[in-house]
Amino acid sequence: MNEQLALGIDMGGTNTAYGFVNKRGEIVRKGSVPTKGHDSVEAFIDELKNTLVPIVAELGKDNLIGAGIGAPNGNIYTGEIVFAPNMPWKGIIPMAKLVGEALGVKAILTNDANAAGIGEMMYGAAKGMKDFILVTLGTGLGSGFVANGQMIYGHDGLAGELGHVIAVRDGRKCNCGRLGCLERYASATGIVITAEEWLAQRDDRSILRLHPGKLTAKAIQDAARKGDTLALELYEYTGKILGQTLADMVAVTSPQAIIFFGGLANAGDMLLQPIKKYLEDNLLNIYKDKVQVLQSALPDADAAILGASALVW
Amino acid sequence: MNEQLALGIDMGGTNTAYGFVNKRGEIVRKGSVPTKGHDSVEAFIDELKNTLVPIVAELGKDNLIGAGIGAPNGNIYTGEIVFAPNMPWKGIIPMAKLVGEALGVKAILTNDANAAGIGEMMYGAAKGMKDFILVTLGTGLGSGFVANGQMIYGHDGLAGELGHVIAVRDGRKCNCGRLGCLERYASATGIVITAEEWLAQRDDRSILRLHPGKLTAKAIQDAARKGDTLALELYEYTGKILGQTLADMVAVTSPQAIIFFGGLANAGDMLLQPIKKYLEDNLLNIYKDKVQVLQSALPDADAAILGASALVW
Prior knowledge:
Two copies of one chain form a homodimer. By secondary structure, chain A is an alpha/beta fold. The first copy, chain A, folds into two domains: 5-118 and 302-310, ATPase, nucleotide binding domain (Nucleotidyltransferase, domain 5, 2-Layer Sandwich); 128-297, Nucleotidyltransferase, domain 5. Chain A has eight helices and 13 strands. In chain A, the strands form three sheets. In chain A, strands 3-2-1-4-8 form a five-stranded mixed sheet. In chain A, strands 11-10-9-12-13 form a five-stranded mixed sheet, with helices on both faces. The A-B interface holds A 73, 82-83, 129-131, 145, 147-148, 150, 152-162, 164-166, 169, 176-178, 244, 247-249, 251-256, 282, 284-287, 290 and B 73, 82-83, 129-132, 145, 147-148, 150, 152-162, 164-166, 168-169, 176-178, 244, 247-249, 251-256, 282, 284-287, 290.
């Protein structure tokens, strides 16, 4: 086999998924290694190397053009992971350099949400679009803003932190130290916080009362699918906060679509319909009825791998 | 004289300024015609034509490469002015077409704040910058977002409406029909509204009490320069609202600078220092101490003319 391949790596706080991708966007081999459980970044790189080097040899070292990495707080200009709160290692990590040296190929790194955005643009729901916003709803909230067909990286490579736009002035305390950040409301973590607050304050019946102290976004999704009123209302509220905040973002970049990706977005219309409703309610007139609200068209694990691999070409 | 020239036109609700600009960014001839007072857009175009055609003949028709127009709610993709609340004529006006036909040259039109942004990027405070935000503080608040060295126009040409980002949820009623838009606080109009509210609610002494019912942004600036405490506090408050809101915008495009332009910005440090302070207070850690807060380096009238003319080249 002499097909050129790019390695896409999607680095998360818990797991690191990888895929070898050809130019048509087909993942010819994929797998993952744990991110967690390594005391040092060197130990993690060792495991990654031990896993990948034999596969690279098998696929043909000469076929591998390079590696693209998507990681939280990744900076495309420096190749560094910069103070990522959800990663096991603190400070500034020169991850592109470490991965490149381990595999003997050139490596390029960007923010995980930016990588997913590039994946959607090349192979997914944003195919052919030049102006869109990608929102990843996972443990936190990540984003990639594309304008004029280009990812907005900003002067320092750190643009697109929609999760830390203030959604509620003087609202919930965020891990970043500020108050009211969007991701404290609109993420798997955020919806659970809302649920816990409501269950403590209210006394309406809900399946969710059966999970005291260990509520998850998945449990909320299951309850909502069974018609649980409080669970459905949680999506309504989360969609309201998202729709309101995104209406302001539309006024900045006037996108053709906003694409939602990640665990919480798997709730589908239960979440997307409230987002769409509150987005439209809050949009300036000139933007009304123009912005598509879409779910990612790529499998969760694949968008970031495909996007990261696309950095290489 | 055989120098190539571009005509830059800055269209406002009251006046329309024009300038013939050479490739070095020098305005070789300028002037203005009233926008107001024409019952129809045709009558306005007639006056513009009668003024400009003799000048074009004098400068040499063959030297004129084209005309660039900056106008409120201008759409670069269609060349139309779209429902501009502050223009004398309502609805959709194909202004680029009308001006182009009147002068017999190709004409291109964009949003007035975008034109000013291009002017700053080519000849002003943003020279050499690839990522910045231009904010015009006039009767309303306009903006141009530049990322990767390109103006963000959005999929429909209508991006960059920072004035209609919600600064205060459920706040002041805006002309657009929504509540709490930034321009109701941070503009010549906005600061006067704040002043009138405060003068009615409070009883501290202020020079501004001498202007009952006819306060202007200029009167506030004059009072502040004389050390009037209430007037200075008005800049502090206006800067707070701007700084808070712009901190969210920085999280989207991570600009190298935010450049302020227009009548209210002429207050200089009285406004810029509070903006800088509240911007820094509200920024996510990774952006702190990186964003320059600057005043436009171009004369008020010239930035939009220069920017509009730059569309032609």
